[in-house]
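User: I'm writing a tutorial on reading structure tokens. Could you give me a worked example: one chain, its sequence, then its tokens, then a sentence or two explaining what the tokens reveal?
Assistant: Sure. Here is the example chain.
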Amino acid sequence: MRTDPLPGTGSGAAGPPAGRDSSHRSLALAAMLFAVSMTFIDQTIVAVAAPRIIDELGLSSSGMQWVVNAYLLALAAFFALGGRLSDIFGHRRVMVIGTLLFVISSVLCGCVPRGDFAQTWLIIFRALQGLGAALMFPAALAVVIAVFPVGKRGRALALFFGVSGALTAVGPLLGGWLMVWTWRAIFWVNVPIAVIALVLAAMAHIPESRRRERLDVPGAVLVAAGMGLSVLGFQQASAWGWSSVATWACIVGGLVVLAVFCRYELGVAEPLIKLGVFRDRAFTVDMLVLFFAMLAFVPVFFFASVYAQISLSASPNQAALYLLYFFIGFGIASQWGGRILDRRGARPAMKLGTALGAVGFALWANKLTHLSMHDQWPYAALAGAGIGFLLAPASTDAVNRSIGASYGEVTGLTQTVRNYAASIGIAVFGTILTHVTTDKVVDTLRSDGVPAGAAHDAARSVAEAVTGNPDAQRPTGTGHVATLMRDSMDAVRLDFAEANQWVFYGMAIALAVAFLCAHRHPGTRVTQDTPPPTPASSAQDVRGG
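And here are its predicted structure tokens:
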């Protein structure tokens, strides 16, 4: 097995090849930002167009949910594979392949024909979008890491994560604007973005490097099956119910497959993921901090948006602007976090970020029942700042400690952990929100004189709004019961806000746990003059056994 470092890493390596000037680095960073921006925007943009797609193509609500989930499932299942392919075949090459697969799939999603095959068509090409993103993202991140020396890497990755993460909030806003023309444009918009990314990548003259190793096909199949099954179980828990045999069969079955995968990898000479990296305590702490932080970071986009539309009666575009409070804090703090990483290492940034995040989410939760955006923005910004401080330092520190400079492999691993945590967060918090909302709305409507049956139906409608239909909470019809329900909507909005408090307090607890994990970080700083203390120091550790 090859264990010599790639350019810019390993013992005594100070950065990318000589002659790599700052303008080429900037072009490479810009190219990677344009490429990954598509993956972040697509996580939220489809949800805005879902009602229009359902109406025009005649899809069922469950079918539309599969259209959304197909992307996320493929993303989670193939991230580790994407990172490994990036190492073996070259970061630039795999980024280009992933970008082309993503944009071609996007075009075909927008060209979906009407008729019985529409749902299957969308699910297939949304899954291929997810596969393209899984190839593209770890390769793009590896390119940024490879072209920037360790001493400048923190700021570069802070910009990478800050800008690309903020683009998630652009999805709903951009989707609302594009739908004035046609909902199909939410997929076609990826074409000009991909062209810009590919042109900039060509101009940057990104150096290519490869690891001469075989692809661990059995490992790739096991990790894809394990991640796919368990994520499917978490995603479908709200539809199947937590008491469903199918839910737990997927979750437990997926975890068992992942356990088999780990055992298999320890005995393979050239594994998909070298698990020996977890022997570095700092790397393990980085992964734990990312896991617990991601329980809040990705789900907050979804729950804050739905809260704004239901409790604050905001439009989708106004809900997107509401999320900008969070991203203002996130964007500013991500730059500071990168500077702290470069000067003092990851531990101070992670401790500060997790502490601010825990406090910010708790204070934000306390203000949700005020039903005023104006009262909430400082706490939303504080919560965003907490995530901004920790995200790039934890991710960068983990990659700096990678075995044998396996950038793609470890970026794939970190992104797999992040997506897995996000799926769990959405499922668990979604279940909490649904149950608490249903109980509170039923009590409110019955106290206002609404019959039990109608109260339960209305409560379910509000709860179903959590799955992406913000109009579901608005009762329609005529007569005494409909009038009673419409008169109760102010109280129902407050009920939904109180239910969301449980979710946001849960996010605060997740960040508090991440804070405790950050304290376990050894605090050693990876610099240009100090090679990362990874298990790559011995061939035995590189094999993970």
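What the tokens reveal: The longest helix spans residues 407-447. Residues 437-496 form one domain.
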